[in-house]
Amino acid sequence: MQVEGAQDTFTPFENSKDLLAGLPHYAMETTMFTFLVNTVVRHFQNDAFVYRAGSEEHRVPYSKLFEDILLLSRAFRRRGVGSGDKVMLLSDNRYAWIVTDMALMSIGAVSVPRGSDTPTQELRYIIEHSEATYLVVESDVLLDRHHDFITGCKQIKTIYVMTGTIRHTLFSNVYAYVDLLADRTYRHSDVEKFVAHGEQLQADDLLTIIYTSGTTGVPKGVMLTHGNVMHNVRVLPLLIQLRESDSWLSILPSWHIFERTSEYVALAGGTTIVYSSIKTFAQDLETYRPTLVATVPRVWESLYNRVQQTVRKKGVFASQLFRFMVWVSAHYRRNRRQLRGRLPTFTSSGFFSRLIRSGLALLQLIVLGPLYLLARKKLAIVQQRFGGRLRLAISGGGTLAPYLEKWIDGVGIRIVNAYGMTECSPAIAGRGLTCRTFGTLGPAVPETELRIVGEDGLPLPTGEEGLIEVKGPQVTPGYYKNDEENSKSFSPDGFFRTGDLGRLTVKGELIITGRAKEIIVLSSGENIDPTKIENVLTMFPFIEDAVLVGQDKKGLGALLVPNMEELKTHLAEKMKDFRKEGEDWLSDSKVLDYIRNDLNRLLKPREGFKPYEKLQGIIFLDKEFKLGEELTNTLKKKRHFIEQKYRKIINELLA
């Protein structure tokens, strides 16, 4: 296996077919090892991965993937890595990541993955807390970044570097993959040892410890077993009707459980995964024309804003026409769902009320029908931005805002809005292709119990909001070395307490209504879900991001990250005396009051908001939120960090 200096290339072998023909077939896939062997044997001729290294494109068939895993696991074993050893894996998306992950898994080692942007202080905590004794890093540059900590860390026995060559050694046991894998030959005995180690694994063996992103405090080590993850690998392909001909475009961090499990699911079906990036995502959609993408809500927010900006540049008429076409499409599809009983209901309704609603829906379908046919043609250009072959887009890692879900549906993209968390490997519920009820997260995934309980822990009637609890084979056995959190996170009868608020429809489909720990409580006692208001604020093209604040204050405020060009254009059109010159206009009280009033127009009772949910003050921040600081690797906002960082500003804003 030759790994990049500037590349990520693993050298193939001539005897791939002979090797694969000699591998066993497992009737039951109970561990990640048995899953790996079976999927490689079934799909050895298919491309497993496509990635670019510099200007070169590389395609990796399943046979080569297996050989790379075989060689790397051999190299690890020869240098002491064994079953049960904790291995810190510090890297971003790349082919070498999945090979490393699978190689560690095959020998029973426990991976402790994290992204390359992890601060040294956090890295120190995770290594020490997890008791990791080996470290794999993406590059020697990344190794240099943590030089002082690593040189003084006696806990780490050996360090492995994925890319490039080692220019220096921190201590004797530092190895580059390119040197480790210079010997590209293998014998039958190597295969026999590989299989022998893998077959010793059990479903309840620990596979990985994933430290949460720390949105609410110190990271917690989520333990996941082979059986936990295999539940997802087993049931999710059925929900999305996975086909061998499918291709995925990957953009999320591989170490995060949503992307990681998505890749496992893709491999289980013999599909192809194309590694992309934030910079190349839009172009890769058109180049590789995927049939599936797994994304987080922030990706859709970015796409929504880009499309809106593009349309506005074409002029007022074109912009208004586009918005009208989206409105026609969304309303036509909603009324069609009303007629077919595919909208969420929380109570049983009478025959005549259903008849009236159906009649009104039918009338609107008749009126909108011709316009809908026109809208489909006009909106096809948006679908072409996704390559024209996309049959399913999966959104997870956070709740998709209602306006975004309606817009995505309006432009004709089939969206699976899924719900999960690291502690559940991650799937809890999902609106797969078997669920047609729009505006929900669908029912619990197979083999999973889902319930809504009150503060007393007792189940609530259908339709009532409460705390979401889940039980199933995918649920973590607990947090590593954290008895306090384990006692708080599980009910006496074994249900995991998610900390999210939600309610169930009469059909058992889930709707998320908030996050219990994120609820803002004003000094007057009112409870407010910040995400609902933030979703409205980010509908404005001149707002890149928004964080609602006001805990223990008399009213609400908002910290806003502006799109400067869009904000200038908006103010120039709306404020007659607005001047772009100078640097203080962003903090001008007239500008802030105007924008605040503009935002509050959408926070009215008729839109479902209460009087105390209006903004008492706003402020524009001069810096965008960054990964590893205000944002987690899945682009969620670290509320506790933001509130601490801007504490002085918040106090002045809501004094």
Structure report:
This protein is α/β, with parallel strands linked by helices. The protein folds into 3 domains: 30-44 and 57-201, 3-Layer(aba) Sandwich (Rossmann fold); 297-516, Roll (Luciferase, domain 3), CATH 2.30.38.10; 519-653, ANL, C-terminal domain (GMP Synthetase, Chain A, domain 3, 2-Layer Sandwich). It is 39% helix and 19% strand. The chain contains 22 helices and 25 strands. An 8-stranded mixed sheet has the order 2-1-11-10-12-13-14-15, sandwiched between helices. The protein has a 5-stranded parallel sheet with strand order 4-3-5-6-7, sandwiched between helices. Strand 23 (543-549) and strand 24 form a beta hairpin. The longest helix is centred in the middle third of the chain and has 34 residues, at 351-384. It starts with 15 loop residues before the first helix and ends with a helix. Residues 1-13 have low confidence and may be disordered.
Helical fraction equals 25-40%
- Assembly classification: single chain
SS strand fraction? 15-25%
CA gyration radius, whole angstroms: 26 Å
In short:
The chain has 655 residues and is an alpha/beta fold. Helices cover 39% and strands 19% of the residues. The chain has an eight-stranded mixed sheet with strand order 2-1-11-10-12-13-14-15, with helices on both faces. A five-stranded parallel sheet has the order 4-3-5-6-7, sandwiched between helices. Strands 16-17-19-20 form a four-stranded antiparallel sheet.
Features:
single chain, 655 residues, alpha/beta, Rossmann fold, Luciferase, domain 3, GMP Synthetase, Chain A, domain 3, 3 domains, 8-stranded mixed β-sheet, 5-stranded parallel β-sheet, 22 helices, 25 strands, 19% strand
